[in-house]
Each structure stands twice: as structure tokens, then as C-alpha cells.
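Database export, one record per block. Field names are fixed; values are copied verbatim from the stored entry.
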Amino acid sequence: MGIELTYPYLLLLLLPCVFLMYSFWKNSRLTMNRSEKVIVITLRSLVFFLLIFALTIPQLLLPVKGTTVVFLADQSASVDNKEEDILAWIEASVDKKAADDAFAVASFGGDAAAEQAVTKKETVISQLSSEVDETETSIEAGIRFASSFISNDENGRIVLFSDGNETIGHAAETVKLLHNKGIELDVVPIQVPVKKDASLTDLSVSPSLYQGEKADISVSIASDITQEATIRISLNDKEIIKKSVAVKEGNNVFGFSHIVTETGMHVYKAEIAAKEDAYAENNTLHAITNVKGTPKVLIVEENRSSLSSILSGNGFDVEAIVPEKLPTTLSGFLQYQSVVFNNVSATSIS
């Protein structure tokens, strides 16, 4: 049994109260005798103390029998093949629990799931069978889920099994919430071998292209070592580029080009294949582009020039007119992607 103060720092208000009582003792020596001053100061001090003590919002803590322990296992791809070690650790811990202690088992990746409900029995599950998102690691989601097994009036503890490689979420902020709820957090580090990996980090294609235009494709690869890799690029699931490249340790950028011949929405897909590649999940990226029809250009010129033939030879749909035939409304210009005034005097345009 004990007492917990929600705002213990408010007890500092007792200091000015002591000063007030001391001043009262000094200033009342002519109006009261010693016994009267002692009674008045005692009563006033008691009132001040009770008021300040009430402001701290005290709570009486009654003893709680037993502790609820939630074993939280990281099941993301980065801690693969560690399930047996985790379950063995849990089983050894459960064998030593007190009769009033309870435990539960949960697992997490990008999300979290229950493996074994809260129980006081000493039987531990034989495998972690719940399906979680193994492509991400959210320690925050796991801790929040595990804390839901522990009610506010229980002694609680979470035992986290993880390599600490958090890809999403903010576990540090969640740990503060555990402290406020009075839940302890213990961490059992999982040692995983260092794996060499190559991953696609970016696929860049212009989101808008014209039919017949050359599309510039940029592929970024991050690798832990220097090695050979094969890059495959497909357009709407049809392979258009396949090339072997020398990948250096760190970030690498490779550029390719492709002439688009059909209009509409197109999906570019980039894939890499390397000998030293621990995780296949990060080897593919997609990019979407919208291919429009051949751009139409309006050339305004008083005398015929070679500009029309130059633009036509580069794949543009060209129309040439004299200044007097310029459209007089906005709608007349909407069919053109560009308007070129070639050596035209301002006085010849309305």
C-alpha cells in the first residue's frame, strides 16, 4: 500500500506557507500570548497543508497480486529464422513465473496480432502463426497493441524481442506513454547476421509525354557491395530494356531512353537482379506516365521559312499561317501546344 501524488511539485507551495506562519508569530507577540499563537499557527498550518495536499491529487495505491507480462516478438523479414529462439526464451521465462503472474504473446511487423491470449497457465504456444506485414517494422504499433493486454489497475510489463530496425512509426514516443501508464518495457536484442543487399531506390520517368517523344528513364540502385546487376525495364508488362551494369557500393544512378509510340496511360516497371541480394521485396518499382498525341504547333510568319520542315522532321504536327489569319478567340488556340511567332511585326497582329 502506498500514496501516489499526481502533481507532487505543488508541495513547494508549503514553503511560502512556512514563511507566512513565521511572520505571523513575529507580528502577533503583542496581541496574543504564547499558547494562543501556538494554537492558531497549528490550525492554520493544518488547513494550508490539507489544501495543498488536495491540490496534488493523491491516490491510494493498494497492493496488486501478480504481474501481466506481454511477450512481443518481431516477425518482420529482417529477423527471419529467429522464431525458435524467441519461443525458447519465452518458455524458459514462463517456467519461472509466480502462480499469480499472467502472460500473453503477440507478434508484429508493419502491424500487430495476438498469438496467445492472457493466461496464468504455463503452456506456451509452439509457433507464431499470426499473419503480419513482414515488409515493414513498426515497433510503435507492436508496443501499442501489447499495452492493450494490460489494464490500468494491473502491474504490467512488456518484453520486446527485436533487432531495433524500425522502418515506420516512432517507438520513442510510445515508450513515454508506457511510463505514464506504469508499464515497464524490457528489450531482448535479436542478433541477426549482416546480409548484403541491392535495392531499387528510385524509378523516374516524366509523368507526361507525347507520342513519338523519347522518354528519359532514370533508375537508382543502392548496394552494400560492388557487384554486377541486371536491370530490366518493361512497359505495360512488355520488356523494352535489359542491361547488365556494374554497381558500386552505395548509391548508383543509371539512365536509359525509350521512344513511346502509343498514346494513353502507361506503366513502367523496373526490376534488378544481383547475386548478393538478401531481400527481393525491394527489387521492383513502378512509374506511371500519360502519353498524349503528337503535339501540334502553330507557326505565325509573314514569309515561308524552313522552321516548319525542321519541326515536322522532329515529329511535330505543324501548321503555318500568316498573321492576318490568327484566331480571334481563345478557343481557336486550344488545339495547339505551342504558338511560334517567327519574325512577325507587332503592327500586323490585331
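Remark 1: The chain has four domains: 2-61, 67-189, 198-292, 296-348.
Remark 2: The chain has a mean pLDDT of 87.
End of record.
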